[in-house]
Amino acid sequence: MDQAAIDRLRVEAVPGQHHWIGGRSEAGASGEAIDVVSPIDGRVFTRIDAGSAEDIDRAVRAARTSFESGAWSRCPPTERKRKLFKLAELIDSQALELAVLGVRDNGTEIGMAYRAEPLSAAATFRYYAEAVDKVYGEIAPTSNDVLALVHREPLGVVGVIVPWNFPMMIAAWKLAPALASGNSVVMKPPETASLALLRLAQLASEAGIPEGVLNVVTGYGPIAGEALALHADVDAIAFTGSGAVGRRLMESSARSNLKRIYLELGGKSPNIVFADASNLEQAAKVSAFGIFRNSGQVCIAGSRLLVQSSIYDAFMEKLVAATQALKVGDPLDTRTDVGAVSSAEQLQKDLQYIGFAEAEGAHCLTGGRRILESSGGYYLEPTVFENVRPEMRIAQEEVFGPVLAVLRFKDIDEAVALANDTVYGLASAVWTSNLSTAHRMIRAIRAGVVHVNTYGGADLTVPLGGFKQSGFGRDRSLHALDKYVDLKAAWIAL
Questions:
Q1: Fewer CB within 10 Å, N side or C side of the chain?
Q2: Which residue of the set 109, 264, 386, 398 is catalytic?
Q3: Any catalytic annotation for residue 191?
Q4: Is 264 a catalytic residue?
């Protein structure tokens, strides 16, 4: 990436942003706005509309009108495919601009943001565009005097609510299969990371996706998000975020029209290092990356490190060295390894958990302090705690910050017990050179993803989702298409 180009984009003026409804920019009904504060320096650099229930209703009506018109829902699959490919091309053509805009909004280090946001989103739209004309209905095996067909039909209007940590990537995981299936969408982006998603909706219009098919209403979750969840003309909600909000969404479904709710929630993922791991130095470096990238603001972050007792001291020496080697700072500097915490509120939450850990007797090996405060931004040292007991809050609760809890284990049975000793089950990792141990752990760990001798590796071909209170939605892979279609049986007497 070109640092000079990044530096030009970082100071580019961003005008105040309105909602995107019916293929055009629409001012919010209330006239109220939200200051957009950059975590890089703590300064306001633009404003977005504070969406209301009235704005949500306008967007849902636009989505329903577009759906019923058939302009998208009944257009030939190859036509949807062509326009989704065009959208991917437009995202690629503006990738650096989109990445810098997103970093100014949420503080992710630019190297990761560039790959994980626009480039990943473009790849996701291509993946599902390619699937549009390759996923078929079925002919059921019946008697010779009956023809039974199973049709896959779009649901209608899909609500999408995404988080602030990787908003463009996660939005694409939901938008691409929903749009590929012929649905219309109303998206409520996070109030602290809306700018790139508003631009994405504009690019969708430029790609030829009809008016009203993709709508974006910005605003606060308890107002705009809840209005979307309660709306009786929304057929499904796809959500990534906290368990508390996930519960609210399920309650809203019950209170309204029993819309489908797909939840990808939090995690407290165990990263388990056995004594026979083939390369402890590599395991330590990857483990540090697995918790500290994007300042720990990653749903699958390996926030619990389980280390076998016989190698504990040697491994921890390598882990601390890898942690202290990370450069924390300006996320728009290509030399930065760890960027800013997304907001002042999240920084205070992180510091509060560090206080909990110290009060409960954990020992801070490195980090634990706010840094670069004179910049005005929100920066926290990567923090490692040892002497952590399983019942401690930092071992049980999702911090969603650069805070690692380290526990020891003696044998495989204790590793399994510790790994499964939380209400979460999103991701995990196992480091071992023993194939039998790897397979035993894969079967025993209650998590939607089990990495072996790596952390964070996967692509669109495999699903992402969790067990237990990490939710039951599945993003990525062809399985994601199933969330956005109804199955209709046709029973034809011959």
A1: C
A2: 264
A3: no
A4: yes
